[in-house]
Hints:
By secondary structure, this protein is mainly α. Helix content is about 70%, strand content about 0%. The chain has helices spanning about 25-30, 35-55, 60-70, 75-115, 120-130, 145-160, 165-180, 185-195, 205-215, 220-235, 235-255, 255-270, 290-305, 310-330, 335-360; strands spanning about 135, 145. A two-stranded antiparallel sheet has the order 1-2. The chain is elongated, with a radius of gyration of 23 Å. Mean pLDDT is about 85; it is low at about 5-25.
Amino acid sequence: MLLLPAAPAWAHFGGDQGERRVSADLWASLRRPGLERARQLQLAAEEEERQALRQLPDEWSRICRHALSPQGEELSIAMLRGRLRGLKSLLRHALERRAHLDGALTRIERAVALDPENPELLFTWARMLQFWENPSSLTGCRSERRDEEALAVYARLRELDPEFMPASVAASEGILLTRLSRYGDATEAYLRAIALSLDPERSANSHYNLAEVSMLDGQLERALAHYRRALDVAREPHLQLLALWGLAVAYDRLGEHQAAIEHARKASYADGRQLRILRSPSVFFVPRHELHYYEALGHEALADAAESPEQRITALQAALRSWHAFLAAAGPEGAFAADARDNLRRLQVALGAQRDKTKAEALP
């Protein structure tokens, strides 16, 4: 599953909900002197957060998985050792990022204690909890998260002030719930985010994420509809590409294989006849083996457009490797394993036929 990351801490979260409100004006400060101290603590916390994201702008687990994933070829032992050395260096930055976020959380929690009914402080607190990550495994790319705590703070914010940036809050909750594999709850959050957004372009991410969650939940027709909507309203090429890939997989799982290959071809051609975006550090898959399903369709689309028999054979072989990898990870009874087996058998026949044809044409 491809899931778009949350915006950076200093990004503008408004737009669909109006301007971000100021937490303490002059008169409130005069009535409650502690509010000025809370504001100072918030500014200090946000500076710590900026320092954290300067240490490592992306999630440790995502960078780790990207570094250890083969980019079109199997990693050799030497390549793997080299990447592990690089990851050890990045691990130091990840730990420094966590230390800065720990400092940010200490300050924002003190600010909330001084001004517990300030929705802006609660939003900042929840966001910092959402970013927090503690690397727990180098080779397994695992990390500890504080997603449940972040959800609790978002819930507290919604109860305190339902009108404070509701679309952004709902979208953030959807991401957290998806990470926790609570797909039904994530669906409700994304639907709420879409309903509350006043700008269709800003709702593109939520449509896309809702489509992904719907597919994981087996709701393929709903997934198709929201992929289409995301493609219609998205302005970012990155998101348009992801929506095309999502459509390809949804069509395949609905039994419309030719439509699937056509969308995979459009996506790969828009990416320079490559599948690079599928292994971009800015996206990840839940479960992780979903990557192989996407890549299998992509390799088959490239095989159909191959300019020589040799290129077609190479692409078909790559597609077969991806189907084998998907099935090995998903298991015989895993979600969409039956679709993968059907595609595997069909491509085995196609590869055999192409090899026979190539041999026959080579005969004098």
